[in-house]
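Hey L., structure's done. Input below.
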Amino acid sequence: MIGVIRVFSTDNKEILNQHGKVITNTSNIPTVSKCIQDQPLGIFNDETEAQAIPKIVELGKELEREGSKVLVISCAADPAIEELRTSVSIPVIGAGSAAALTALSIGKSVGVMGITDNAPAAVENLLGSLLVGYKRPDGVTNTTDLLTPQGKQNGIEAAEHLISLGAEAIVFACTGFSTIGLAAVLREKLTIPIIDAVEAEGLFASYLLKKSVLSVSSQAGFL
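Output:
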């Protein structure tokens, strides 16, 4: 099972489980999702990230105790990833680094889309010289702004702007884009690869989980 850590607070089970459903739909592996407490707006600056770090670590430890074999921090900034990795005995994947590493495997120029002023360091540092530009869709300060027809059009225009800068692949630096299905919209309109951060974290996590199962089976004499 893959444990999914959401870095905001919600009592809405459907919203809580959205990223887990994306991972299960793409990997056919069950997930369990938990969210941090007392942060309904999630992480949006250094202060809120500092508040979230111990909560993320405790959630990760709880998920490991309850049977998760791989953890994903479903946030493109990869908050608390190093702290959590030193606190649990199972692999920990961050959405931002997973998306960036997926782009690196293509080896082409990359444009990054997000809703903050700048690309997350977890993404920017990994992409290095392949990063040709970052764009926040016009008028977008949170993912719900993209739910309107105009918002979706702004998302398409942001991607087209990045292509005009030389991008040959687009990376989402916001896991909320997965929640609203922006990848499907862009894939219908554009011909370059669209790398969804939640799909990417699920790809890495499912690979590690399958490798873990194969290793255990081999040690038990089943392979």
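The first strand starts at residue 2 and ends at 6. The chain has a mean pLDDT of 90.

-- N.
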